[in-house]
Design goal:
Oligomer: single chain
Largest sheet: 2 strands, parallel
Radius of gyration: 22 Å
CATH class: Mainly Alpha
Shape: globular
Structural class: mainly alpha
Strand content: under 5%
Number of domains: 1
CATH architecture: Up-down Bundle
Length: about 475
């Protein structure tokens, strides 16, 4: 067979069927994100035991520690998103795993809230960098018609990982104390970082755009599409995507994105505000009820993550055909589900478990949809940055959620009223997401910016 004169890598990937390569990449990424979800939730499950061991009587003193990793994520998401677009998704992902693994492991030997605060903040930098780069990497290998589905399936690893600290706190903490939560949470990502350095592929689209990346891209393409013959003179290009020179935040608002990007950021912030209130304070609040044990409170909080896994699987295929409308529907459904948790907690054990499961289905299901948004909207040259900025701005909400929760707890509001207040962000988020769904459908007609044809505003030629 004669070598191809030119290969449009974006079109080649978009038109391919799903292969064992895609499945293996998503499975390995899923495992990496299990460690991410574990680490995000770990401090919430360790909090009740920390209060007891360190003789802390005011629960509000935990607020800075509960939000410290979120501050780190706010910094790490755009910072390591930039590293991903500049030096590669694989490099940034391995670095992220090492950073949050090392500082999470170190947290097992802390002896004060101030030490824990610093280590959680530093771990958050690594946590923030992992998500945008894993989105970019998997989105750039996924055929367009399965892109949202594969990214959402990958992100279900976060919900599974978020439930594991509850099991560790139930089975291991009674015998080994709260440090075991951080030993498990630190050792796993360090191990996965070394595995990723050996086995995780770099994005072939990134390599095509990177000077000197052609040879590595050609080797990967030979595995992806063995029927396509790539010779020394074959030009590799991404002809169907806009390619931006360098990065500037203004690129995220250009080319029809002036409303879509801020709406996406607002949806991220509002949903994360409600979600982080739930996972940060639920173990402590529910343990305060005389009818619930520490194990019961941990189980109820874990059900949010488990319900979210089902929500993620439920929303992925509808998003392929209906854009962000399914996400907006889950925003609306989250309002009563979250608002009823407090009422159920003081009236029915079974009702509490059902309410938390349904709340997780809605809150995390819609978050999975938002996570997939950046891969559907932004092109390769902006994808890690676009994801990083969305996650970074969203972290303002995740910081406000636990902080406002601490203020409400200081006001000594009854538990039903606390959770009614936690439902307020979802009311505003539902409105914003309906606007986003409408604008996205009108502008992109179900296709991301990366798949639109036509001359870009700023172009950097692909190398090949």
């Amino acid at each position: 067979m004669e070598p191809e004169q030119s290969v449009d890598v974006a079109r080649l990937i978009d038109e391919r069927p799903l292969t064992a390569f895609n499945i293996a990449l998503v499975a390995f990424s899923f495992l990496i994100l299990v460690s991410d979800g574990y680490d995000i939730s770990a401090i919430g499950f360790a909090a009740p035991q920390l209060l007891k061991d360190w003789q802390i009587t005011d629960r509000a003193e935990l607020v800075p520690v509960l939000t410290a990793s979120l501050v780190g994520i706010l910094v790490g998401s755009p910072l390591l998103g930039y590293v991903g677009d500049r030096y590669g998704r694989k490099t940034a992902s391995v670095l992220s795993c090492l950073v949050f693994g090392i500082f999470t492991l170190a947290a097992a030997w802390t002896g004060s809230l101030s030490e824990m605060l610093v280590l959680r903040c530093l771990a958050g930098i690594g946590l923030g960098g992992l998500l945008p780069n894993m989105i970019a990497l998997n989105g750039e290998y996924a055929p367009r018609r399965f892109r949202a589905t594969l990214i959402i399936i990958m992100f279900c690893g976060i919900t599974l990982g978020g439930a594991v600290p509850g099991l560790v706190s139930t089975w291991l903490v009674p015998a080994h104390g709260w440090p075991v939560i951080f030993v498990v949470g630190g050792a796993l990502p360090i191990l996965l970082a070394f595995c990723a350095a050996l086995w995780l592929p770099e994005s072939v689209k990134f390599l095509v755009l990177k000077p000197g990346g052609r040879q590595r891209a050609a080797k990967i393409l030979a595995r992806l599409a063995p029927g396509v013959v790539i010779g020394p003179e074959t030009r590799l290009a991404i002809a169907t995507e806009r390619v931006y020179s360098g990065f500037s935040p203004k690129y995220l608002f250009g080319d029809g994105m002036a409303l879509i990007t801020p709406l996406l950021w607002l949806c991220f912030a509002l949903n994360l505000m409600g979600f982080y209130f739930l996972i940060s304070w639920m173990p402590t609040l529910l343990t305060g009820l005389k009818v619930l044990s520490t194990s019961d409170a941990a189980l109820a909080t874990s059900l949010i993550q488990i319900g979210g896994t089902f929500g993620g699987f439920a929303v992925c295929r509808p998003m392929e055909s209906r854009g962000f409308l399914p996400v907006a529907i889950l925003f609306v459904a989250a309002i009563p589900c979250v608002g009823l948790i407090g009422y159920a907690a003081v009236n029915s054990y079974v009702g509490l478990m059902v309410a938390t499961l349904l709340a997780g289905f809605c809150v995390l299901g819609l978050q999975f949809g938002l996570n997939a948004a950046s891969a559907m909207i932004y092109p390769t040259s902006l994808r890690s940055n676009g994801s990083g900025w969305a996650f970074g701005v969203g972290r303002f909400g995740s910081i406000l959620g636990p902080s406002l929760g601490g203020l409400l707890i200081k006001m000594q509001l009854p538990l039903p009223e606390l959770f009614l207040a936690a439902a307020v962000p979802f009311v505003v988020g539902a409105i914003a997401c309906l606007m986003l769904a409408t604008r996205y459908a009108r502008l992109f007609k179900g296709e991301g910016l990366g798949e639109r044809h036509g001359p870009p505003a700023a172009v950097k030629p692909a190398h090949g």
